Amino acid sequence: MLKYFIQKFATNGALEQQRTGIGRLAGALGFLSNALLFLGKFTIGVAAGSVSIMADAINSLTDTVSSILTLVGFQIASKPADNEHPYGHERFEYISGFVISLVITFVGCQFLLSSFKKILAPQHVRLSIFVYVILIVSILIKIWQSRMYYTLGKKIQSTTLKASGQDALNDVLMTTAVLISAVIEGLTNWRVDGVIGFLIACYILYSGISMVRAFINELMGSRPTQEDLSAMETRLNAYPEIYGYHDLLVHNYGPQKTFASVHIEVDDRWSLNQAHEVINKIEKDFSKSLAVQLVCHLDPVALRDDVYQEKRAIVTSIVTGVAEGLTMHDFRVNGPEQMSFDVVVPKECPLTDEELTQTIHFKIQQRLGHQKIEITFDHTYLLQ
């Protein structure tokens, strides 16, 4: 059934249009199913006087609102670039997800309070076979909904849809807990409704706060996944003609708008045209295979200069021996007694930049005599 909807509503047009179509499809299916769940749970919650069922119903209402925000988010995110937003509007998908997480957190706070009051003043819950039927159907719908969100989210690599899939899976657990509480109260007459409602509210609150943090990271610019970094390293390692690479930076303006820059080390005897041909090939490779818009910066290296290579080897051994994890790149000999280089400092390094500078300067002077040294410290931890 899901494949039918994808083929009918989300497979026409360019890649961005397909992404928008799938996002709208997920929002529409989510809205219809969540609205149906809210009406069913709210009806039996009011009839039974159960705070846990009402909490579950309001959670379905927030999911309905979330589905509307998903629809709006994908619609706005699909807008093309303009003068004010030259990189497009895809980050609005993160904004809609952030708003969804705030709504979930607010609902969790409200039901935490109402459930606590129910614990202090417990009331009898009026149960019927209709209550059990609705709860079981709700669980089955939420299992389908979770699978739907995960399938569509994976298809278009959407963190918003994947988060909705996790939220739907959480709802399966929540509704199952409500069903168990109803069974316990029906069999034993123990009034556990308030306690179950309190636990559900805590879970809603936890999920909301976790999602808030996740989307804040997306908006602020989070570190690429190790899988993405490994894929980029694999592509760069596929070019034996380059001497090395460093200073990889990655940032994005949405799920399909990823940009990166990297320094490529090449033989300094290459002509400008030869170097341009290689980096142009690498940039096109990244665009085609990884959908990443890469910009390469050239670093010429004196591979055949014995003096350069000797000094580079000495400075490398000094830097790596000062503290564990230190690495060096961009080594330059700017004159008989002048050199410059970059040092990559891992976050667990116990020494400050000033302490590293003093130590490295002292050790180089011991080995090579008086040198005018310029050190740039790199605290970007994408590639070590």
Q: Would you give an account of this structure?
A:
The chain has 384 residues and is α/β, with parallel strands linked by helices. The protein folds into three domains: 2-220, Alpha-lytic protease prodomain-like, CATH 1.20.1510.10; 223-303, Alpha-Beta Plaits (2-Layer Sandwich), CATH 3.30.70; 305-384, Cation efflux protein, cytoplasmic domain (Alpha-Beta Plaits), CATH 3.30.70. The chain has eleven helices and six strands. The strands form two sheets. The protein has a three-stranded mixed sheet, covered by helices on one side. Strands 4-5-6 form a three-stranded mixed sheet, with helices on one face. α9 (272-290) links the parallel β2 and β3 (292-301). α8 (226-237) runs antiparallel to α9 (272-290). Residues 224-300 form the Cation efflux protein cytoplasmic domain. Belongs to the cation diffusion facilitator (CDF) transporter (TC 2.A.4) family. It is found in: Membrane.
Which descriptors apply to this entry?
3-stranded mixed beta sheet, 14% strand, 3 domains, Alpha-Beta Plaits, 65% helix, Alpha-lytic protease prodomain-like, 11 helices, alpha/beta, 384 residues
Query: Could you give me the name of the CATH homologous superfamily of the largest domain?
Result: Cation efflux protein transmembrane domain
* CATH architecture heading of the largest domain: Up-down Bundle
Given as residue ranges, the uncertain stretches (5+ residues, pLDDT < 50) are: none
Q: What is the CATH topology of the largest domain?
A: Alpha-lytic protease prodomain-like
CATH class of the largest domain: Mainly Alpha
List the secondary-structure elements in sequence, H or E.
HHHHHHHHEEHEHEEHE
- The DSSP helix count reads 11
What is the total number of structural domains? 3
Overall shape: elongated
Biggest sheet layout: 3 strands, mixed
Give the DSSP E fraction (strand runs of 2 or more residues): 5-15%
Overall average residue pLDDT: 81
Question: What structural category do the secondary elements indicate?
Answer: alpha/beta
Q: Give the strand order, joined by hyphens, for the main sheet.
A: 1-2-3
How far apart are the first and last residues' alpha carbons, in Å? Answer: 47 Å
| Helical amount | 55-70%
Give Rg in angstroms. 29 Å
In total, how many beta strands?
Answer: 6
Domain Cation efflux protein transmembrane: 29-220
InterPro entries: Cation_efflux (IPR002524), Cation_efflux_CTD (IPR027470), Cation_efflux_CTD_sf (IPR036837), Cation_efflux_TM (IPR058533), Cation_efflux_TMD_sf (IPR027469), CDF_Transporter (IPR050291)
Family: Belongs to the cation diffusion facilitator (CDF) transporter (TC 2.A.4) family.
Protein name: Cation diffusion facilitator family transporter
